[in-house]
Design brief:
Helix content is about 70%, strand content about 0%. With about 300 residues, the protein is mainly alpha-helical. The protein has one domain: MetI-like fold (Orthogonal Bundle). The two termini are about 35 Å apart.
Length: about 300
């Protein structure tokens, strides 16, 4: 198993995409930044100096401490503390974990819905294709953030005492159903690629030999259209994270007891003009670093997998 993995990694490293990555300083820098952020988020329990959401460890006397390099700061809290005495650095790691979880989960769900509908529309065609594309047009006609606000607002009104897992599920669903960054982009991309692939000779040969539609789509068409889907998914992760942060900043995102980066920015915004700038600036910088690095990786992957740009 280890030999197979090492062999696969060696082939990938020596491929055209690997060569493009090694010779792109922007892609390497973006990968390093994204890797550090993801590592700190995933292993926050081990890396973070404190657990900022453990009420037993909070000390209100340490509230509003500035960063360690500012006068009045403490070496115990490198990036300072918030209004409840929580360590900002630790809160960033735990908050980034929630933002990444929601963003990646929303992208996976969007891919499942969008790729399925795109394959159906492109391969079957006819009235089904027309109906799915008109639904996509309707979704794109509404501002994405307003659709997400509507879904989360209605769900909170219907289930005011919902469990935390239900709140997360509704948030992920609202990001998935938005027209700008949800399943619509995948459906339109996959439909266009499927329309091209279904008329190629290998698909016609499979039809002549009696292969079923389902087998043609799953074994022949789908593997050949995954390239654009993976590029789009990489870029959409950043979009989903920003959408989640926006909803949390507006107060309709993740639960208050599991704050994400957007919630941390919202809390810090209340004290921004009181001189406690670090409470909102550092979560904002963390959010920008994650979104920008993932976007740059997506741009590089798009160019690296485009034969016309090689």
């Amino acid at each position: 198993m280890n030999g197979a993995m090492s062999g696969w990694f060696k082939r990938a490293w020596q491929s055209d995409v690997g060569w493009s990555f090694r010779n792109s300083p922007v892609a390497v820098a973006a990968a390093v930044v994204a890797g550090i952020c993801i590592f700190c988020a995933v292993f926050a329990n081990l890396v973070a100096p404190y657990n900022p959401f453990n009420l037993a460890t909070l000390e209100l006397s340490d509230a509003f401490l500035p960063p360690a390099w500012v006068q009045g700061g403490s070496s115990k809290y490198l990036l300072g503390t918030d209004d409840q005495g929580r360590d900002i650095l630790s809160a960033l790691m735990f908050g980034a974990r929630i933002s990444l979880f929601v963003g990646i989960a929303a992208v996976i769900l969007s891919m499942l819905i969008g790729v399925s509908l795109g394959l159906l529309a492109g391969f079957v065609g006819g009235k089904i294709d027309t109906f799915i594309m008109r639904v996509c047009d309707v979704m794109l006609s509404f501002p994405a953030i307003l659709v997400a606000l509507l879904i989360t607002g209605v769900s909170r009104a219907l289930f005011p005492n919902a469990q935390e897992i239900l709140v997360f599920g509704v948030l992920i669903l609202s990001i998935t159903l938005t027209g700008g960054g949800g399943w619509v982009q995948y459906a339109r991309t996959v439909r266009g690629s499927t329309l091209v692939e279904r008329n190629k000779e290998y698909v016609q040969a499979a039809r002549v030999t009696g292969v079923t539609r389902w087998r043609i789509v799953s074994r022949h068409v789908l593997p050949n259209i995954l390239g654009p889907v993976m590029v789009l998914a990489t870029i959409q992760v950043a979009t989903a994270i920003i959408t989640e942060a926006t909803l949390s900043f507006l107060g309709v995102g993740v639960p208050p007891n599991s704050p994400s980066l957007g919630t941390l920015i919202q809390v810090g915004n209340k004290f921004l003009f009181s001189g406690y700038w670090w409470i909102t600036v550092f979560p904002g910088v963390m959010l920008v670093a994650i979104a920008l690095s993932i976007n740059l990786l997506g741009d590089w992957l798009r160019d690296a997998t485009n034969p016309r740009l090689r």
